[in-house]
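Weekly puzzle thread! Below is a chain. First person to post its structure in token form gets bragging rights.
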Amino acid sequence: MKIGCPKEIKNNEFRVGLTPNAVRAYVDVGHSVCVEKGAGLGSAITDDEYKAAGAVILNTAAEVWKSAEMLIKVKEPLESEYGLMQENQLVYTYFHFAADRPLLDACLKRKIIALAYETVQDGRALPLLKPMSEVAGRMAALMGAFYSARTQGGRGLLPMGVTGVAPANILILGGGSVGANAAWTAAGLGADVTILDINLQRLEYLDEILPANVKAVYNDEVALETYIKNADIVIGAVLIPGAKAPKLVRREHLKKMKKGAILVDVAIDQGGCFETSHPTSHADPVFVVDDILHYCVANMPGAYARTSTFALNNATIGYGLQLANKGVEKACLENTALLFGLNTYRGEVTYPSVARTFGLPLKTAADIIK
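Winning reply:
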């Protein structure tokens, strides 16, 4: 199979879809790989490293898209890339369709095969979302700490406190991978941490594995209102696979919060879990609503690009090889994890949550690819 990897063009996105090790894995089993010139520089990977692994370097993204039967990226195609997508081309990347109708429409119009990292599902696990959830969760606590500084618009509260001064209260909404990693990092900073979730088994697990300065609490409206009033930093880490995130924090909640508190919305890729959120970029990461600072960067792990790129490739390469070796249809029929990842197929929506979000017809993935 002909595999292509273009340079990411999202604002301050420095990750890249393939590492040299991944290139070598594809080449060693007979596939050809082309990489756009300079695609890996943001992750400290040179063109020479790709060449040594067996890749061909092409000068433009257009050449890469045109050459590839299977296109491997990190972030969703942007509007300037819509015209580069080719009918029947397999695009293997994050899509987050439920929060981006224009992207969905473009993929349906171009009749590509969209296999979304975020919905590949093995049992209850989301193996291609997990590595970036780890990065984003740990980063969320760090960003909350950074923007707590008065010079950054926060309350001027050092999260770990000092002798005689209490640490910050950090509230985390959602106890999944993002939430657990955010809690682990926030606890390590010395903050007083509370996780709210509605899954009792998950809360029990979090109680067992997290440090003593983390409380795992069942979430309802009373709990949310109680803890949000005392929070210095609130991290939104709620996920419904493939669907829009629920708006747990409404605008009226902001009136009850401390002035200068920080909201970090890690769910912004899926529409955000704060009513007042909208996507921001690393170039312009924060905004203020009702005296509350919002950090809503839609590609948080791109800031720590090398770590993120290698962590992502460690997860995607196994599934990618199945797709390349067998073809997307056979691979999906033989591996239900990949079948869950199929969001659009040649002009049809094949993922239930995406179809429900926009009221579109759903074609069962297994039936349509047969």
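Puzzle host: Confirmed. Bonus trivia for everyone else. The chain has a mean pLDDT of 96.
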